[in-house]
Amino acid sequence: MTYPGDEYKIKYLLPFTNAELFLDSKGYYLEWIRDEWAKEQNFKKLNLMFNKPAKYLRSVSKDYKKLEPLMEKTFWQSRYVKK
After folding, report:
1. Which of 65, 63, 66 is nearest to 45 (CA)?
2. Residues 22-50 as b or e (16 or more Cβ within 10 Å = b)
3. Which of 8, 36, 46, 79 is most deeply packed, by most CB within 10 A?
């Protein structure tokens, strides 16, 4: 698990001095969705989001602005492993 600002140094022994390496990496989240989020399914809003995104964003903007100040704190207080 990494956090913003984490740095890693990796040293390789290369077979010759002119060697070049290409480092390919992939990032992913350990969890894609939380059980709490699944309870909030609203297919009518999902349909609106995909088919009329501007209308959807206008309809949720007030609720988003109310919750926005809490999002960072809530995220960092959440756990991805249940104890």
Report:
1. 63
2. eeeeeeeeeeeeeeeeeeeeeeeeeebee
3. 46
Whole-structure pTM over 0.70, yes or no? no
Could you list the pLDDT tens digit for every one of the 83 residues in the chain?
A: 677 778 888 888 888 888 887 877 777 655 556 677 777 788 999 999 999 999 999 999 999 999 999 988 887 887 655 54
Report DSSP letters for 10-60, one per residue: -----SSTT-----------S-S--HHHHTT--HHHHHHHHH-HHHHHHHH
- Assigned token pair, 62: 């007030």
Rounded Cα–Cα distance for residues 50 and 70 (Å): 26
The C-alpha atoms of residue 15 and residue 17 are separated, in whole angstroms, by 7
